[in-house]
Design a protein that fits this description.
The chain is of the alpha/beta class. The chain contains nine helices and ten strands.
Length: 241
């Protein structure tokens, strides 16, 4: 299927000629969160035309680019070098180069690198554009079955300092609460949720859009006792309404 998508893009490439990137600007590009077919033609086109791609992990991004026959320069931009590489990327854009920003999966800047760069671009008068696409928050919310007129995004909980106080604060927010978690702390977090929210209804999603995607719904205690595979990244929705 990926090969077919690449062929379709190549065959209809002329239709994207109007997608002329603005020189000296930043494009925040959403990429698949699992299934590589979940990419837009505009994202492929932007990644092809940008002067360079700032990415969380060059290995992951280069693999994605290879699937679509894209050859472009990639520069690592992960959390520990956000500040040290800021001047480099700003300098490149001020000199007229266009940069595409991607994370390992999904939409950059949401619990991923990008906020510092985006903020600096706005400060410097550099135009910032978004190429929308996949993100795990919306995917998990729509399959939760909860009422979604509004929700609260927490992201990752603090690992140690302020963890308990943050959980206590979240109990006061009367709407679905979205929490990100790793496979290493999922069991601890489920037990913490049970302690602070009681035996609430939750939805737990893992391996989103991949072959072994799984969403488990029910009371916290039932999910803890029933067990869930501790593999992949997790999105927990607490129905705190």
């Amino acid at each position: 299927m990926i090969e077919k998508l690449s062929e379709i893009y190549i065959q209809h490439k002329d239709k994207f000629s109007d997608n002329k990137l603005v020189k000296g600007s930043l494009y925040i590009v959403s990429t698949p969160i699992g299934n590589l077919e979940d990419i837009s033609f505009r994202a492929i086109d932007t990644l092809s035309k940008a002067d360079l791609i700032a990415c969380e992990d060059t290995r992951n991004t280069n693999f994605l680019l290879q699937q679509y026959g894209i050859k472009n320069k990639t520069v690592s931009y992960y959390s520990y070098v956000e500040s040290s590489k800021l001047d480099y990327f700003i300098g490149e854009m001020l000199s007229g180069k266009t940069i595409a920003l991607v994370s390992d999966a999904g939409t950059p800047c949401i619990s991923d690198p990008g906020n510092i760069l985006t903020g600096k671009c706005i400060e410097e008068g550099i135009e910032v554009f978004s190429v929308p696409g996949c993100n795990s928050v919306m995917h998990s919310l729509v399959v939760s079955g909860f009422t979604l007129k509004r929700f609260y995004f927490q992201g990752f909980l603090p690992q140690k300092k302020r963890r308990q106080s943050v959980l206590k604060e979240l109990t006061l927010i009367k709407m679905p609460v979205v929490i990100f978690e790793s496979p290493y702390r999922i069991s601890k977090t489920l037990n913490d949720i049970n302690e602070h929210f009681g035996n609430s209804e939750i939805s737990v999603s893992r391996e989103l859009t991949k072959k072994f995607e799984q969403t488990v719904r029910g009371k916290v205690k039932n999910i803890i006792s029933g067990g869930i595979k501790t593999k992949g990244e997790f999105v927990i929705i607490i129905n705190n309404t």
